[in-house]
Amino acid sequence: MKKLKITSTRLQIVVLILIILMPCAVALNAATGAWAELLNMPQGIALDTSQITGLSMLAVLALGSIKPIVYMIAFWFLYKLLGLYREGIIFTAENVAAIRRIGWAVASIDIADMLQTLVTGPILTFYNISSGYMAARLEVGILVIGLFIVLIAYVMDMGRELKEQDNLVI
Amino acid sequence: MAIIVNVDVILAKRKMKQKDLAEAIGITVQNLSVLKTGKARAIRFSTLDAICKHLGCQPGDILEYQPDTIE
After folding, report:
1. Domains by residue range for chain B, with CATH
2. Which residue numbers in chain A have pLDDT < 70?
3. With an 8 Å Cβ cutoff, are B40 and A165 in contact?
């Protein structure tokens, strides 16, 4: 149990650093004008960065923040789960709920990515930042991992119920 | 529940303390309390055997069936 507490505390620090780094990375990309990296643009699409001012900059920042925000939410749920482990709370309903939340958040990363890719083209075209293009990306690797985490949460919940029942067998 | 656990009745008849019985049969006082209060989901044959052995009684003395009354 002591080892779990130490490991959880260390991992919590790592996850907290990642949570802090996410908005920093977005801000750094914006500050250095690395808009293509921020928007995860497909190759061969040129950006007219001189058009990124005021409202269009806000739109680009919002677009570029979609995925980092979902990552931050997933990391936050992970941070909370590690907090429970640090307190020695392992097989409880609270843990199951935390793991389930992580699963849905992780699954949302790919959905956010698809959404971002889908709306980036029309929005950039609207603000004359790029020539009219429309792209769609279908990556489901992280989505499958997220759904698998949700499944693990359900199995863990069943295990917790069995444990509770076993505690009442004298 | 329809099954009533009468361990406390037998304990009183034998003038034995709950703590002593728990120690003798190798379960915790908390678990014996769970059994007494009817919160237990099941009882192992080994536990029942140990209780009967130490209290010198039959399983029927400890467990009693009372049909649920419908209001």
Report:
1. 3-65 (1.10.260.40)
2. none
3. no
